[in-house]
Amino acid sequence: MKLVIIGVVGTIVGCLLGVAIVAAGTMPEQASVQAENTDWVYDIMVIITGGIFGLVTAVLVAAIVIYRHRRGETRVAPPVHGHTVLEIWWTIIPAIIVIFFTAISWKALNDNEGGKADLAITVWGQQFDWKYDYPSLGLEQQSELVVPVGAKIDFTIRTKDVIHGFWVPAWRMQINATPGRETALRVTPTKTGSFKLVCTFICGSGHPVMGTDVKGSIPRRVRVVTQAEWDAWAAEAQAAAAEQASSPEGAAVSIFTKAGCGGCHAWTPAASTGGVGPGLDGLAGGDAEAIRQSITDPSATLVSGFGDIMPKDFGASLSPGDLDILVQSLAGGGA
Amino acid sequence: MNVFLRPNLARCLWVAPLTALIVMCLTLALRHLFGMTPIFDSEQMITVGYLGGVIGFLIGIGAFDTWFPWMLGAAERPDDHSAHGARSWRDYFRFNTDHMVIGVQYIATTLILFLVAGMFAEIFRAELAHPGQDFITTSAYNGLMSQHGIIMLLGFLIPIFAGIGNFVIPLMLGAPDMAFPRLNALSFWLLPLAGLIFLSAFLVGSFESGWTAYPPFSTRGPMGETIFELGVQIGGASSIATAVNFLVTIITMRAPGMTLFRMPLLVWANLATSALVVAATPFIAGSQFMNMFDRVIGTPFFEPDLGGNTLAYQHVFWFYSHPAVYIMVLPGFGIISEVISVMARKPIFGYRAIAFSSAGIAILGFSVWAHHMFASGMEPWLRVPMMITTMLIAIPTGIKIFSWLGTLWQGVLQMTTAMLFATGFIFTFVIGGVTGIWLASVPFTYHVHDTYFVVAHFHYVLFGGSVMTVFAGLYFWYPKVFGRHMSESLGRLHFWSTFIFTNLTFFPMHWLGLEGMPRRVADYDPSYANWNLFISISAFCLGAGMLLFVYNLLHSARHGKPSGSNPFGAMTLEWLVSSPPPIFNFDVPPRIVGGPYGYGIEGARHAMFPEPAPAETREQAHA
Amino acid sequence: MSAHAEHDHHGPAEYTYQPHPFGLGAVPLGLVIFLASEIALFGSFFLYYAHSRTILEYEWPQPGFHIPADATSINTAILVASSFTCEMVLLAIAKARRSAAIAWMVLTILLGSVFLGLQAIEYQTIGFLPTTNAMGATFFSLTGLHGAHVFLGLLLLTFCLIRLVRGHFSKERMTGLVVIGIYWHFVDVVWVILFTVVYLLPTHVI
């Protein structure tokens, strides 16, 4: 009897604790349909498992308080070996609970991924930056992720080198970029604004700058805008791309941007502000061969104050022609 | 015989480098023979050099002194048992075939590795206390973090249970030793080698890819990655050899009358664990072989351009590494069952349910691996089946928890330090279990995968869970090893500091993960600064508490309160012999006449000796 | 135990253990358990192979390459035959015919060596390397892992041969032979599976 009372009280207190956790708002801002579905599952799980936690803790603490051996006590414990009915119950009830969790999770999963997509975007991870392709706009290797609110967006995640993890906490969605294959993510943003974008998978010594807003890195954000704003942004971006393709200076900037250099280096012509590696504006008028070596073999000479963290494969990934253009442009102070 | 010729550590000093050198020269000769250029390949040299060194070390320590003559056809001689048992402290530093000596060797080695890996954690927690790069670089952080992970798992958690099992299980079974004593010693000596191999990676640039070593980051990383792969192979081999030994011992070496359902639950837990180790560990060996071939030979297992398949690595890896989680916690469950039943002076509640749930966890453990890969972009159809099995595995775990509560209820609880750790374990483990159920849910994992939430979850399971059981076990069996108690007052202090700071350290990590802090980062968003500072301070306090434990452990061996043979009034066989037990455990084989947990039952006995008992009996000790 | 009387050292007490369900002696049981883990080691490479072929729909063999199933089937027959000759060793010992046992053992070792030699020739003529592509990596690591097991088996058989020549085995004392026989059969069975999966499944079935 004592056990039943303690158990019931413990379960209720535990559930209330769960409610309190949910009410306290432990999740970040909710900005997508997927976030709503996920949080619904989360809330239910927190409250029910809170009850289980409360039950176990209450019985545990009560047992210690009530049945602790006291000095001089000669009580003998009842030789109970088990209780079949009780054991069956504590197998069945958890089974029902976890099957219920599976069901609601499955439902949320289906709701997250259902329906036809309105927009497709390809996200490219690389050491240590993100790039975005907008196939419907004919835009490639953009440095900014801008999406319209309310659209069902299919993200295709790809990588140029190692595994990265694409995560937008406000959307509650993440998936790894896996070499050699495309991974997919469906998001339906419900809120406009600027949201944090995080790399979750360790991808090298620059991993932190690819994820959170650490000092010296450019903040990684996804910008959710209204459809009208998005259309305007798209037109602007297309115009900028066209202009860049036609000007000689643009060629260098375009190579610089596509290769992801701006993720770590500040360079005025490309309007990049990355602070992980040394700034490149001071290179104007410098020795072209030294610049070339610093790109193809970055470990050879290091600027003091900066570690040896630059990827070593730019010599292979940049075509010789592109490399020439880039080196000339860096050494020539712009064009 | 000269000290450098007898089988001992001194002989290793010259045999190991010599063997390494011979193997390296052979490799150079072979490369020359096949016309490979350049003749010198540093990755290959370091691989064969390490392997040669390991073999040379084993030759030096005397692991093959019996086997080599056998192979070459020397006449068999009966064993004179000269390599068996410890008569002085020196016997702990040689190739010793006594299971109790090996048990102590294991525990000492793993505790040292535990302190080393814990120190790594303190160093990078200091870096993380404040946002920005403070005193170690990102690479150094990644290296320390990876070392912390792999040494804690492969150098501490898995082998310390092998150590405790080694000491206790032959005693519990009523057997004189393990089934293969020489193999047992061999598997122990591989362990310090694995630890040293991991640590030596610091010399050439530590591995940075975390303990999971996902390619292609690991196949393209610095040379430390190759050393990591070697260390995993050596540690894995040690683990498999021990598991084979446990299985054969438990199956074939039970004293007369010891039927399966009279075995103590720790034996059941070890049986299930060993089966898991045997069936699962080769998969991590396989995954690291592939990584190593990619690095050393240049195979394109994980080069997508040449048809490589990086996702297959994750499948193979987790096919081991999920069962590994149960390898790290099932023996702990066994320890808890022992401690709780003895300390509650009450039979274990639902003996068969606990025994079968161990087996159930071991079997189900093989069907849940891909829940680590929900967000890795694996085959989408695999998600829901894995979610279902992962959810289901909570049921046998729940059965154990409820059975322990059933044992505690109405017991006469002796709140010793071991019991404090056992009950504290139940509290923290339930938190880890609950978040584990959440993580089984695919949509939720899509949010928190590879974040601090996951870090919090597995530290609750492995630190709040497994490490607590290790402490419970060490406090519980310490008197059996040394014949003396550890200090109870220091023990209590150690428990409370561990319990409080475990929660203070790891609980806030849940919030950080939910908010958006990814794991394995050397630097983070300044908005998380306060919680990180709090976590770091708690982690330092947690570490300080461990110093108390170390002091207690060392001090009590000489100065602890003498315990007699059966201080807790336990019924299982290890308590029916003297403390420390005699060499070969039993002068007379015991007969098992009843279940192991007949506490509080009039006249119940687990075992008896046909002739007068060699040590004081349970009744005398309890009086 | 007799050692007890002969030596000063204190040996274990004399035991009759609880009978166990498998009835195998400790050494054969240990070997069987160890072989289970060997299956898992091969399994990890098979898992990689299966995952590539089913999920990635990786072509096997890759276009432009050939895996010679016909030539290797002769080699398979040789290895299977060596399993039988290995069993003959045990039979001969059981009938106390030592010279016959030695002859069978020598034949077993010869067959095993021929198998390895033919594999080596195949490696040289197959037309791709472990570094060529993922197919090469998988092919060479699976057959190479197996080859290493055959090599180890040959070493063990040679040790047995030495002991056989010296007359260490008898009907009562042949655990060493039985155990190595089990291992040799295992290597054989693995090869049959490997041959089916790596050589036959690609060219003849799919």
Task: Please give a quick description of this structure.
Chain B is built from 19 helices and two strands. Chain B is mainly α and 623 residues long. In chain B, α1 packs antiparallel against α2, α4 packs antiparallel against α5 and α5 packs antiparallel against α6.
Q: What number of domains of chain B? A: 2
CATH topology annotation of the largest domain in chain A: Immunoglobulin-like
How many domains is the backbone of chain A divided into? 3
Q: What is the CATH topology classification name of the largest domain in chain B?
A: Cytochrome C Oxidase, Chain A
List how many beta strands of chain B DSSP finds: 2
Strand order of the largest sheet of chain B: 1-2
Please count the helical segments of chain B.
19
Q: Strand share of the residues of chain B?
A: under 5%
CATH class of the largest domain in chain B: Mainly Alpha
Architecture of the largest domain in chain A, CATH level 2? Sandwich
| CATH architectural label of the largest domain in chain B | Up-down Bundle
Strand tally of chain A: 13
The N- to C-terminal Cα distance of chain B equals 52 Å
Summary keywords:
heterotrimer, B: 623 residues, mainly alpha, 19 helices, 64% helix, globular, disordered C terminus, C: 206 residues, Four Helix Bundle (Hemerythrin (Met), subunit A), disordered N terminus
Structure characterization notes:
The complex is a heterotrimer of chains A (335), B (623) and C (206). By secondary structure, chain A is α+β, with helices and mostly antiparallel strands. Chain A is built from 9 helices and 13 strands. Helix content of chain A is 44%, strand content 18%. In chain A, the strands form 4 sheets. Chain A has a 5-stranded mixed β-sheet with strand order 3-2-1-5-8. A 3-stranded mixed β-sheet of chain A has the order 4-11-9. A 3-stranded antiparallel β-sheet of chain A has the order 7-6-10. Chain B is mainly α and 623 residues long. Chain B folds into 2 domains: 44 residues, no CATH class; 464 residues, Cytochrome c oxidase-like, subunit I domain (Cytochrome C Oxidase, Chain A). Chain B is 64% helix and 1% strand. Chain B is built from 19 helices and 2 strands. In chain B, α5 runs antiparallel to α6, α5 crosses α16 and α8 packs antiparallel against α9. The longest helix of chain B is centred in the N-terminal third of the chain and has 36 residues. Chain B is globular. The C terminus of chain B is likely disordered. Chain C is mainly alpha-helical and 206 residues long. Chain C contains 6 helices and no strands. In chain C, α3 packs antiparallel against α4. Chain C is globular and about 65 Å long. The N terminus of chain C is likely disordered. Chains in contact: A-B, B-C. Chains A and B meet through α2, α3, β7, β10 and α4 of A and α5, α10, α11, α12 and α13 of B.
